[in-house]
User: Fold these one by one.
Assistant:
Number 1:
Amino acid sequence: AEVGATAIVNVSGHSFDEYVQVIEALEDAPVDAYEVNISCPNVDAGGMTFGTDPDQAALVTSELRTRTKRPLIVKLTPNVTDITVIARAVADAGADAVSLINTLLGMAIDAKRRRPKLARVVGGLSGPAIKPVALRMVWEVHNAVDVPIIGMGGISNGEDAIEFMLAGATAVAVGAANFVDPLASLHVLEGMVAYCKENGVSQVSELIGALEV
């Protein structure tokens, strides 16, 4: 906030109360929006992940909607049978936007030691490998709900970002690429500008959902 940046804070919890506590603690802080991560397991419901059950996802969203007037962006997990069901549930419950996708559940094994490489055995897979899945889910959600979509999952250059917008994303986020190149987001932006100039696009918003199927 001190340097004029927009602050979107990721909110998570393992119970409804924890989500509420995070929001309440931040209401006096210079926060522009909340991204509600519903990929956490709900310990009160036996460890079921909030984001895999439409009723749980809607309940978290509606509960937080009563606690803040700031924009609520609900981050969706791809580890579901039909992501549009979850998207509709949170949109109906008051989400201002959705972001997708979160990481895909995966694991890694050390064959020599015959042990898992990750302390929790399973973990989140991100990066270019998940891009096709992310694009498909953004396209599905774009065709299912009317709220804005922040697309993410394997974006590493400008053309990747453009693909997400064509699939229906209003905005994009760059994650894993930043670990390879700290200036990745700037390079993605430069690539998007170059694409628009080369293809006669005067406003990047023209590309939102412009995929011809």
Number 2:
Amino acid sequence: PELRRDAVAQVLEKAEAEKSADLYGKALRAARDVDQIKASAKALEETGRKVDLPQVMGFLMRWKVIGPFDNTDRKGFAVAYPPEKEIDFGASYEGKDGKVKWSDFSTSDSFGMVDVNLEYGELKQVVAYAHNFYESPEAQEVQFRLGCKNAWKIWLNGELLFARDEYHRGIRVDQYAIDAKLKKGKNAILVKFCQNEQMQSWTKEWQFQIRVTDASGAAILAANRLPTPKATEKKR
């Protein structure tokens, strides 16, 4: 990472000296640190080129979400709620405070933040799930690069890839990198993310971000990827 950062810095310096849009684009594609990503994107747009940052980075922007389920005393992390047993978008289930069902959710955040407080409100001691169908043109090795400050689990095609039962340790782009193998065609990605009982203002965030990349962090886009949602597009 340090070598990559130094290399991107050199490209940015050269791009500034030459006022080169192509070099700014090269820096943007190579950058992995948020400050360099933002600097590259801003400079590129100032040259007149439009930047679709979520697409450049490969963030997953459109999901089906369901919740809230119960996480009283943090017990929900270990409970296999219905979405872990079946995916039926037409079904409804008993949630924490009544029946819950799947709904569409999209984010227009530049770094793909899926903030379900926008869907359910600022709830505590709850669990939600997010589901995405990712279509791969071929079988391939990838990484799921995920950021989340809450407890979470991730499955690919029904197989649990990784889980972390820890809360409010901060969040950053590419916080976790999980190796996975996509099959050719449709792949089901399921994320479970939890919220605990703490009431401080900095504990209210209930969100995650995830992108699909190669081992170097370069984006791998799904064959069925839709255009990045606009800021005015409804979340539901």
Number 3:
Amino acid sequence: YSRSDETIESLSANTADFLRPPVGSLGSDVVPWTLDPQGGHALYPGTVLAVLAIAGTVVAARRAAAEETATDRNRRATFLLVGLMVAHLLSLGLNLSLGGWQPYQVVRRIVPGFESLRSPFRADVLTQLFAVALASYALDAAWRWLRTPERAERVPRAAALALAARIVDSSPPQED
């Protein structure tokens, strides 16, 4: 069984879909121009995940460059980055066209089962999973940075001070 090109194209992601937060999500009212009244696919991964994934990629690259024996670590980060890009391109489906050539058509012809897939945009879940794995590099680097002896003493104090300032700032005004 094969799906029609029109069905697959309508269920393929567009570039704007990756900038569209789900309706009702935290912060979606801050950027209302990203909401599409006609529908579409809300595939925005979230700002925190996107920033951490980019930072994780940078951290992994810097670590690999600093250590000559870091080939396994470099391979893992490279695998995650390539996996993220391939999954992202797959989610574009028939909306990805390079001078009239559609790579997804090649995938449909070569890979068993792809010609009956209806919703290429769902491959974006793999994009987000790869992004989570890349973000772990950034979180690990942040954790290591916080655990250095000189910061281990200062961070809890700064956090307590910030919390106290927030509590004082949010207290109701006193009447005279």
Number 4:
Amino acid sequence: MIHEKNNLKLKNWELVSVNPQEKNWNWKNLFCFWGVSIQSIVGFSIIASLYLVLQINIIIVFAATLLAGFLVAFFSNLVGSPSQKHGIPFAVFLRTSMGVVGAKYVAILRGLVAIFMFGVQTFFLSKSLGYLFRILIYLVNENFLDKNIFSVFYFGLNIIDWASFIFTIFFQIYLFRKNQGFNKVLINISAAVVYIGLILFCLIIASKSFSDVSNSFNEILFSKEFFLKSNILSFFSVFGTMFAYFSIVIVNFGDFSRYVKNESELKKGNFSLVLNIILFSIFSVFIVTGSDIILRQNFIDMERIFLSPTDIIGKFDNIYLSIIALVFIIFATASTNLIANFIPSQYSLINFAPSKLTPTKSGIIIGIFAFFIGSTWLPIISQIGVLSIVDTVSAFFGPVFGIMIVDYYLIKKKKIINQDLFSSASTGTYYFSKGWQIKAIYSLFIAFIFSASTIWNNDLRFLQTYSWIIGASIGFIMHYLLSEK
């Protein structure tokens, strides 16, 4: 009876091993997962800037981006394999290396960052929705937006902004708290919708000035001067930037890989990230290049090249094109918010209080925090440098990955005792020292110091994009050496 009560403290239906019949994700679903991961305004702008603004050789950018994609896929296979095999999420897998109690507090660090970013992303998502509402209102009545009620602002937002923000929070929580089957469908649809949107946008651009756009595109693709010493630094700079962009998803990838049919599908699906990078790069560069040419041909004053899809659409001054583009942007942002922020925070919260929280309750908690973060983002949070704190907490993620991997593959030789993952009894395999694996925690903080130093030490900031890799490497080595003693 005592043993059963101990188990209940750590068990939750969302955390226990997935029923084999529910492992229905294949490589195509993972292709959509990685597609959603890259299909964001930030991803679009980063890729476009690397190819078009920074004056880096195109072959260098392409090679560095592909290498980053392969490394992310390789790391995702490493961390995703045990979760796929045992059907457990990241937070539960973490118990094997950090202890059943230690894993609660380490995993909640990922959850806190995810909750914060969920609130911020929700704010920007609501801005896109607000623009859409304004356009629709304008189409119905051109003078309605001139009423005094729309000129009243509170915390930097007017009535349309507040309505959009509150609606966005409630709608996301309502959708995202559903089961993994629904989330899988949502991810698949979002990836398809955004790619269809990109294709349509490319066709529109090609129809306007195909000859000029194709010539400019060819000049970019076949640029010369590849074998230069200066390209070496550029290569590592681009590689670090692209890897850093994807690194946030790696550590908790087990939250998704637990639903994959088998390891073969997992590997094929992860390496489809490389295909996503190639496709998204081509679309992004073509759209930005083509838009720049068309706008200049229309005698629009262009002091700089526009890299954000919202800025590009704004310059075209076409209401119907703006509506279509905003719909695609909303799909992309919402689905990215789901996989990068909501699901990681949901699992982390449930793992922190397994006997008390459900998907609905954890969703409500996320929604409440998101409301306060998003509503105060413009007047307060964005002004006080909180992102530096978020970056510092994120510096734990690389070390966590390194410790988990060395512990599972080299120390425990891929062996996990499933029932002890949910046992808080002192005789449990993962109870260690009162629920904490002291060696892993010590390794975590040592690696964190090195990882965080790239953020806070001015002399080391040139390594900031490599913070994750540095932390993972030191955590890997430290935990292995300590555990071998």
